[in-house]
Design goal:
By secondary structure, the chain is an alpha/beta fold. The protein has 2 domains: 245 residues, 3-Layer(aba) Sandwich (Aspartate Aminotransferase, domain 2); 101 residues, Aspartate Aminotransferase, domain 1 (Alpha-Beta Complex). Helices cover 35% and strands 15% of the residues. It has a 7-stranded mixed sheet. The chain has a two-stranded parallel ribbon with strand order 1-12. α7 packs parallel to α9. β3, α4 and β4 form a beta-alpha-beta unit.
């Protein structure tokens, strides 16, 4: 039985990358050591991290005046690092279109009790259960504010922002954890981008930060480990980095390049998600909660059947059929197909076929 892993993260990795990692596990490039054993100060790892950065710069067309960091702590640590580094004495706006955007805003409110800055809720779709991207009037944004924080893809709710909002000239800081390298964004339209690796980049353990040079704080902050400038000056080696995760990330970047680059990756993702959305749209049995097609995620597709009982039955039968981790997030329910870059097209086709059979057997 073929297994298809729909996990929202840590998620499926490209098979060629896993096979290469397997082949190099005991002896990396005739070094006599596994990458798991390499010193982060070794020449071997210096080559790995430099190649990883160069590949990411090439794929995303990152301008020279942006710094690239490979950090630890996940995207959630960035919820604290961003205001600590960027927002001293200023306003910071939060656009909340999902659970992770809400967590970023909640963390900012906590920090505002000890750090002098003013976090402001710019817009929220929480009252609509985050089933759409909320709108706002750009005139409410103070042009002297530090940043506007957005989440480009809402993993739990299945919404995404593709056309960036007008922020009245204020830098955009984007949590791109679940659709980085899935679609093309123009990096120069952001002040900062950050992303946990465990969806489209590699295994959990490394967080990519792309930050414009002029946003680096000129004064030391509370902790060196939370200071972007310290990490920039140390070239992501201020402390021991997640060596193996960066190694896998480098090979994922190579895999995307070999496929044809980021634009080709986006075409593949649009085709994959389109197969699933088209099927759901023509069905009277299944429902996608995101009604506006332009707000729909290419990476995470939530859906439901006519009842919670049928949802539970679907999940149980899907699991037996080899469709793993398709249960929706506990806060939303239903099902969720996370079809990140490495998820194969044939897995989407197999899911559609399974959904067709389930509908035929259970529709009244």
């Amino acid at each position: 039985m073929t297994i298809y892993n729909f996990s929202a993260g840590p998620a499926v990795l490209p098979k060629p990358v896993l096979e290469r990692a397997q082949a190099e596990m005991l002896d990396y490039q005739s070094s006599g050591m596994s990458v798991l054993e390499l010193s982060h100060r070794s020449q071997e790892f210096e080559t790995i991290i430099k190649e990883a950065e160069n590949l990411l710069r090439e794929l995303m067309a990152i301008p020279d005046h942006y710094k690239v960091l490979f950090l630890q702590g996940g995207a959630s640590t960035q919820f604290s690092m961003i205001p600590m580094n960027l927002a001293k004495g200023k306003k910071a706006y939060y656009h909340v279109a999902g659970s992770w955007g809400k967590k970023a805003y909640t963390e900012a409110l906590k920090l505002a009790q000890i750090i002098p800055f003013e976090p402001l809720l710019l817009a929220s779709s929480e009252k609509d259960h985050f089933n759409k991207i909320p709108l706002y009037d750009k005139a409410v944004i103070d042009p002297e504010a530090a940043y506007v924080h957005i989440t480009t893809n809402n993993t739990i709710e299945g919404t995404a922002i593709y056309d960036l909002p007008d922020t009245n000239g204020v830098p955009i800081v984007a949590d791109m954890s679940s659709n980085i390298l899935a679609v093309r964004y123009q990096v120069e339209e952001f002040g900062m981008i950050y992303a946990g690796a465990q969806k489209n980049i590699g295994p959990a353990g490394v967080t990519v930060v792309i930050i414009r040079e002029d946003l680096l704080d000129q004064e030391p902050i509370l902790s060196s480990m939370l200071d972007y400038k310290v990490h920039v000056q140390a070239h992501s080696l201020y402390n021991t980095p997640p060596v193996y995760s960066i190694y896998i990330a480098k090979m994922v970047f190579e895999w995307i390049k070999e496929l044809g680059g980021l634009d080709q990756m986006e075409l593949i993702n649009r085709e994959k998600s389109g197969l699933l959305y088209t099927f759901i749209e023509q069905s009277t049995f299944y429902n996608n909660p995101v009604k506006n097609p332009k707000d729909r995620s290419l990476s995470n597709v939530p859906f439901t059947t006519p009842s919670e009982a049928l949802d539970s039955q679907f999940i149980k039968e899907a699991e037996k059929a080899g469709f793993k981790n398709i249960k929706g997030h506990r806060s939303v329910g239903g099902m969720r197909a996370s079809i990140y870059n490495a998820f194969p097209r044939e897995g989407v086709i197999a899911l559609v076929n399974f959904m067709t059979q389930f509908e035929a057997q259970n529709s009244k």
